[in-house]
Design goal:
Structural class of chain B: alpha/beta
Radius of gyration of chain B: 17 Å
Strand content of chain A: 15-25%
Number of helices of chain B: 6
Largest interface: A-B, 51 and 52 residues
Number of strands of chain B: 12
Largest sheet of chain A: 8 strands, mixed
CATH topology of chain B: Glutaconate Coenzyme A-transferase
Distance between the termini of chain A: 26 Å
CATH superfamily of chain B: Glutaconate Coenzyme A-transferase
CATH class of chain B: Alpha Beta
Largest sheet of chain B: 7 strands, mixed
CATH topology of the largest domain in chain A: Glutaconate Coenzyme A-transferase
CATH class of the largest domain in chain A: Alpha Beta
Oligomer: heterodimer
CATH superfamily of the largest domain in chain A: Glutaconate Coenzyme A-transferase
Structural class of chain A: alpha/beta
Number of domains of chain B: 1
Chain lengths: 272, 245
């Protein structure tokens, strides 16, 4: 299946958990595909996002965010399209902390309505949103996080086979968790391989093919984010995007993505 | 921030001060956007804390990176690790009380050591939407102690009371370009522990929005030759300076 065909199946208004963390192994080719197809009304779920969240906000694809951090770390200033989308109330924000995103995903993965979470005292994020319950087995109370059940998880991995079995090298981040929590899973990979040899080390497969709806080969599919073992962050491209993001309109952003992020471009940049 | 009159600037003073706060053998974690803690941990490991356990979002344990990345969740931090844990594993460690020290920051830090990484102005309709606190709301109450750092020290940063508390909890120390604060557990407020070389008490008071008792405060001991040599070894590209760019 081509990436465009896989993206076409995702309806407007879907909630999507994105793999990776900040500028690392983000499913950028799929993000660009969502923008090219003009998706609207998406809910995005991630512990710590960067370019992926910002560019989808900038292109007008997003209605709601469930996130704990959106920023370019120390590579650029604040994420401007994210900022603007929240400040102008174009996008609603369920602000989380990373551990509460994980707790909500764990609840969904385990098929329960909420997950207890330690800590969460002393934060203005909790009151009125994250309810405390009495410990039914002993003393005290515990904060609970409601299940976060994404319609889709989108993961970019180094390798997958045609059955959708996935091998992630380096850090997994929350990718296996989002795949377990989501109703549907879309995987892109640097290389689509013959999985016949994988019977020798099936333990390296961390997302089994039967849970994966669609797999598409997308070399350079994390670019401009890094992909461990393949390429580093493209800092020059991030800087160019950041400059474009200062100008703002969704037409600007969408045109930039259409012109600058084709599959051949991703392949060439990632391979250099 | 200007040079202190010594042959090193605020980045060196801060990274050395952060490093000295770490204890040998303890488990230490930093998150995203944390160049100063990353270098401080490597510096502590290279000097007084060789048995420290260094944890970060890549899941690596005691990595020995041959180049230091600008992003502190970069695969460069995988180099040299013999095991990988997940971020969920690291949070679970903290939840069980087994994580000793975390490094966190705040766009605003208040007199009680509460941090704001969420919004300036009405949180429902912010004047400035900030990046968000990442792991802080959970880690501040669960890790055994938190060391805060901030590369800027002015009255917009060090405020009497944050308008929104993204998190608060077991803050132990706060390191800035001007001073080291510790939190007085009885009063629950930040007090100045030491003032960096070349910084005057008047300057510190003028650039802090909450009241400080500045009588008889010692000077932060300057970096030693051994610390400076170790810093040059662990961070030859000067990544500890990028928060001041």
């Amino acid at each position: 299946m081509s990436l465009a065909e896989a993206i076409a199946v995702i309806p407007d208004g879907s909630s999507i958990a994105l793999g990776g963390n900040t500028l690392h192994r983000s499913p950028s080719a799929a993000v660009h595909g969502l923008i090219r197809q003009g998706k609207r009304g998406l809910t995005l779920i991630k512990t710590a996002g960067a370019y992926d969240i910002d560019v989808l906000c900038g292109a007008g694809c997003v209605a709601r965010l469930v996130v704990a951090y959106v920023g370019f770390e120390n590579l650029q200033g604040m994420a401007l399209r994210f900022r603007s989308a929240i400040e102008t109330e174009q996008v609603a924000l369920d602000e989380h902390t990373c551990a509460s995103v994980i707790a909500g995903l764990r609840a969904a993965a385990q098929g329960v309505p909420f997950m207890p979470l330690a800590g969460m005292s002393g934060t203005d994020l909790a009151p009125g949103r994250f309810h405390r319950v009495t410990n039914p087995y002993g003393e005290g109370e515990v904060v609970t996080i409601p299940a976060i059940r994404p319609d889709w998880a989108i993961v970019h991995a180094q390798e997958a086979d045609s059955e959708g079995n996935v091998r992630i090298f380096g850090t997994q981040f929350e990718d296996v968790l989002i795949a377990n929590a989501a109703r549907h899973v879309l995987v892109t990979c640097e290389k689509l391989v013959d999985g016949a040899d994988w019977v020798r080390q099936p333990e390296l497969t961390t997302i089994p093919g039967f849970r994966v709806d669609a797999v598409a080969e997308a070399p350079g599919g994390a670019w401009p984010a890094s992909c461990a073992g393949h390429y580093d962050i493209d800092e020059a491209f991030i800087e160019r995007y950041y400059h474009v993001s200062t100008q703002g309109t969704s037409e600007h952003i969408t045109a930039f993505i259409r012109e600058e992020t084709g599959a051949s471009r991703a392949l060439a940049v990632a391979a250099r | 921030m200007e040079a202190t009159g010594e042959p090193f600037g605020p980045a060196v003073t801060m990274v050395v001060a952060l490093s000295r706060l770490l204890r040998d053998g303890e488990r230490v974690f930093h998150g995203v956007a944390s160049p100063l803690p990353m270098v401080a941990i490597l510096l502590a490991t290279a000097t007084h804390a060789p048995r420290l356990v260094y944890l970060n979002i890549t899941g690596s344990i005691n990595p020995t990176p041959s180049r230091l990345p600008r992003s502190t969740t970069d695969p460069a931090l995988l180099e040299g690790t013999r095991a990988l844990i997940t971020l969920a594993d690291a949070f679970d460690l903290s939840a069980r009380g087994e994580l000793d020290t975390v490094f966190l920051s705040g766009v605003q830090i208040d007199a009680r050591g509460r941090i704001n990484m969420s919004a300036i102005g009405d949180p429902a309709r912010p004047k400035i939407r900030l990046p968000g606190g990442a792991g802080s709301a959970f880690l501040l109450p669960t890790a055994n102690r938190t060391i805060l750092w901030r590369s800027r020290h002015d009255i917009r940063t060090f405020v009497e009371e944050v308008s929104f508390a993204t998190g608060s909890g077991k803050v132990d120390r706060v390191v800035t370009p001007l001073c080291v604060f510790r939190r007085d557990s009885a009063a629950g407020r930040l007090v100045v522990e030491s003032i960096h070389p070349g910084i005057s008490a008047d300057d510190l008071a003028a650039r802090t929005a909450f009241a400080l008792d500045l009588t008889g405060i010692p000077t932060t001991p300057p970096p030693t030759a051994a610390e400076l040599a170790a810093l040059a070894r662990v961070d030859p590209q000067g990544m500890h300076r990028i928060e001041f760019a």
